[in-house]
């Protein structure tokens, strides 16, 4: 099982799953000892669940065109984003599913969860992380209570829950400041300067304000009679 190769899910050829349960079973079918085969299969399933979010993140970022603004920054951040995904999934299995609240909210504990197919595991987790990201549930999957027209947040629980999995569709960050925004800011500064300027110096601008760097020039000194 390799993290770098494209693997197909239940639908076949969809290139969206890190490893499917069927694929894991086929890889381990040559292990003669049933006990060893079961142990290896469980290890591979645990690995497949842990790596699915990192795989999604890596795959989405790698699809970004290199000419897209911010693409290079996102690609450099990919390893950290992938690690955050692994930590979040570990929090779900090791903390949420071992807590009575997790059992109540998802109907399975950690051992029962691990016995499910990789596809079913991701299904349960995706529901958890989606409602969490939408601020509909707390870190243990408990739905926030509604009081009238207001949503009352459940009591906060101290956790070390990392950032959620990066969404499938990743947008490159916008530029820090557009040229229009820069001009507007320059014009605002210019107005402030006009209020404080001395009568011996003039600033030459177009009627629209600063439209180019060359517009920001000092006029010649003149005597006022």
Structural class based on helices, strands and sheet pairing: mainly alpha
Order of SSEs? HHHHHHEEHEE
Walk across the major sheet and give the strand order: 1-2
Helix content: 40-55%
Mean pLDDT over the residues: 75
What profile does the largest beta sheet have? 2 strands, antiparallel
Beta fraction: under 5%
Radius of gyration computed on alpha carbons: 28 Å
Uncertain segments are 1-13, 154-164, 166-178, 198-225
- Quote the distance from N terminus to C terminus: 88 Å
- How many helical stretches? 7
Shape estimate = elongated
How many DSSP E strands? 4
Taken together, the total number of domains comes to 2
How does this model look, in words?
With 225 residues, this protein is mainly alpha-helical. The protein has two domains: 21-152, no CATH class; 179-218, no CATH class. 48% of the residues lie in helices and 4% in strands. The strands form two sheets. A two-stranded antiparallel ribbon has the order 1-2. The chain has a two-stranded antiparallel ribbon with strand order 3-4. A hairpin with a 2-residue loop joins strand 1 (145-147) and strand 2 (150-152). The termini are far apart. The model is unreliable at 1-13, 154-164, 166-178 and 198-225 (pLDDT under 50).
């Amino acid at each position: 099982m390799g993290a770098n190769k494209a693997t197909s899910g239940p639908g076949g050829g969809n290139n969206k799953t890190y490893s499917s349960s069927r694929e894991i079973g086929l890889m381990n079918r040559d292990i003669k000892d049933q006990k060893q085969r079961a142990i290896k299969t469980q290890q591979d399933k645990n690995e497949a669940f842990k790596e699915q979010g990192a795989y999604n993140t890596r795959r989405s970022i790698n699809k970004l065109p290199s000419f897209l603004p911010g693409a290079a920054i996102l690609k450099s951040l990919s390893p950290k984003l992938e690690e955050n995904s692994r930590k979040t999934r570990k929090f779900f299995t090791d903390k949420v599913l071992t807590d009575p609240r997790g059992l109540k909210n998802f109907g399975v504990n950690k051992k029962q969860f691990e016995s499910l197919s990789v596809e079913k595991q991701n299904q349960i987790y995706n529901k958890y992380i989606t409602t969490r990201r939408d601020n509909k549930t707390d870190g243990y999957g408990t739905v926030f209570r509604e009081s009238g027209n207001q949503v009352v947040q459940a009591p906060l629980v101290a956790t070390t829950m990392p950032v959620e999995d990066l969404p499938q569709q990743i947008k490159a960050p916008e530029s820090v400041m557009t040229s229009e925004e820069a001009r507007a800011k320059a014009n605002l500064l210019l107005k402030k300067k006009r209020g404080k300027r001395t009568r011996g110096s003039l600033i030459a601008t177009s009627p629209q304000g600063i439209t180019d760097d060359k517009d920001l020039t000092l006029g010649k000194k003149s005597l006022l009679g």
